[in-house]
# Entry
Amino acid sequence: MILWGHEHQQRATNLAHAVKENFADIAPLVAGPATIPKSADTTLTIWGHGGPDSFAELTAPALATFIRAWKTKNPTLNTVELVTCDARHSDDPNNRDSFTDKLLPLLIANSKVLVKVMTLRRGLSSTTRSELWATELAGSTGYYFITADNDAALASALSIFKSAWDAVPDKTGAAEQYDAMFALAKPVLAKAAQGRVVPYNTSLGALSGLRQCLAAVSVYNVNGKTNPVPTILS
# Structure
């Protein structure tokens, strides 16, 4: 099941069509257990805006309550995917805890975690900058994802993709736009990497392969202390 937050309906719908899963708006489902649908899916995917303090317009306690209610109604659930640029990042100079740092403790009890939480990968540090790009056009089929350890490196990679996107002919259909853009961006990326290590990482492709960019959260930070995520509750 794939849920969307504010301004992400079409992205989530396009992803759902690509992976052949059901989809819904998360907003009306968080009202209480009675609003949660029955689902045999083992994975719940949520795509929305995110940052250190909220994800898909939900605070960490609100999302934890929702996940617990979903798991109660749908016991087969074992994985929750948070699709947003920076669920694990914090750009606070005082190393403020990220969203997943706040969420994970609320899903742990008796040395077990309720579900496996997966997010887009980060780079070398907790302050890594990243951007996931997919359009709100019906029928769009692609994405690209960039991580970099500073704003300048992120801007360098983004400029390659944005220039390629701007060069795609205006009449190109939504289903073909990303393929056309990738064909323009790939040689530029290859040339930039020739003979040197570039200060960013990129992933690009069809929405059906977006999950290859996700990784399980294995540690979380609380008040500066790093803790391992325990095994999943069976």
